C-alpha cells in the first residue's frame, strides 16, 4: 500500500511531466496530505530487541529483556499482528510498543526513534495488541474485585490485620486514592488536571489489602476530583457495610 509521501512524490513527477494540470495537482496533493505531522520515521532503523541493553529494556518497557518473550507466551499473543490496512508487525515488537506506551504517558511520536514506524502504524499496532489482550483476559479484570472482596477473604483480611495489633476486629484494608497520569487531552483539560500532582490524569479509589493486592473500589473519574468527594459519591462505605461481619454487630471501620 502506497504511503501519502509516495503519492505526493508521484504527483510532483506527474506535474513536472505535464500529465496533470496545476489545479489537478493542487487538489490531489492536498487530498493526499496526512493530517498527522510528517515525522521522519524512515531515518531510524527497525526495532530489534536483541540490540537493546537489559537496563534500557527495563527502563522503557518495565520488563527485563529475557522476560519479554516469556510475557508474550504468557499473554497468549500471536507471533505476528496484521492491522486492518495490511501492516504486519512481529509479536515481540508489537508487545514492546504497547509496553512502552503503558510505561509512562507519552505521545506516539516519542516512540518513533525506538521503533522506526509512523504514528498511524504505532497507534494501530498498540490498539490491536490491547484489544487482543482484553479479548483473551478480560475475565481476569471483570472478576478481579469479586474474587478479592468475597466475604470469606474479607474475614481473613480482618483477622490478618487484627493479628498485627489492630484495635478494630473488622478492618479489612486501607482506602486511598491514586492518580494515573494521562496525555494532555485537546479538550476539557481542566477537568482532568490534578493540581496536587500537577499532571493530567484520572483517579481511582482503591483499597490496599493485607496480601499486597489492590482492589479497585471506584473509578476512573476526572483527575480534578477530591478523594472525599469520590468516596461520598461512590457509595463505597455503604457497599462495604453490606459485606461487613462482626460478632458484636459493630459497623465496619472506616
TrEMBL record:
InterPro entries per the UniProt record, alphabetical: HARBI1_dom
Protein keywords: Metal-binding
Superkingdom in the source lineage: Eukaryota
One Pfam family in the UniProt entry: DDE_Tnp_4
Limits of the DDE Tnp4 domain: 175-243
Cofactor: a divalent metal cation
Name the UniProt record assigns to this protein: DDE Tnp4 domain-containing protein
Amino acid at each position: 500500500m502506497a504511503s501519502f509521501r509516495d503519492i505526493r512524490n508521484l504527483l510532483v513527477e506527474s506535474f513536472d511531466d505535464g500529465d496533470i494540470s496545476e489545479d489537478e495537482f493542487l487538489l490531489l496533493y492536498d487530498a493526499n496530505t496526512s493530517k498527522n505531522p510528517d515525522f521522519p520515521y524512515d531515518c531510524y532503523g527497525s526495532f530489534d530487541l536483541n540490540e537493546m541493553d537489559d537496563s534500557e529494556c527495563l527502563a522503557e518497557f518495565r520488563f527485563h529483556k529475557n522476560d519479554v518473550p516469556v510475557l508474550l507466551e504468557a499473554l497468549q499473543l500471536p507471533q505476528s499482528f496484521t492491522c486492518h490496512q495490511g501492516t504486519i508487525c512481529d509479536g515481540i515488537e508489537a508487545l514492546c510498543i504497547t509496553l512502552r506506551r503503558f510505561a509512562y504517558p507519552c505521545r506516539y511520536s516519542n516512540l518513533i526513534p525506538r521503533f522506526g514506524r509512523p504514528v498511524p502504524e504505532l497507534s494501530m499496532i498498540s490498539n490491536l495488541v490491547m484489544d487482543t489482550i482484553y479479548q483473551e483476559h478480560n475475565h481476569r479484570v471483570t472478576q478481579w474485585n469479586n474474587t478479592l472482596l468475597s466475604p470469606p477473604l474479607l474475614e481473613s483480611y480482618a483477622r490478618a490485620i487484627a493479628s498485627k495489633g489492630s484495635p478494630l476486629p473488622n478492618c479489612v484494608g486501607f482506602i486511598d486514592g491514586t492518580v494515573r497520569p494521562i496525555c494532555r487531552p485537546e479538550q476539557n483539560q481542566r477537568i482532568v488536571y490534578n493540581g496536587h500532582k500537577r499532571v493530567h490524569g484520572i483517579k481511582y479509589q482503591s483499597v490496599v489489602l493485607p496480601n499486597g493486592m489492590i482492589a479497585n473500589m471506584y473509578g476512573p473519574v476526572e483527575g480534578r476530583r477530591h478523594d472525599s468527594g469520590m468516596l461520598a459519591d461512590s457509595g463505597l462505605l455503604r457497599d462495604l457495610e453490606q459485606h461487613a461481619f462482626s460478632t458484636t454487630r459493630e459497623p465496619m471501620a472506616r
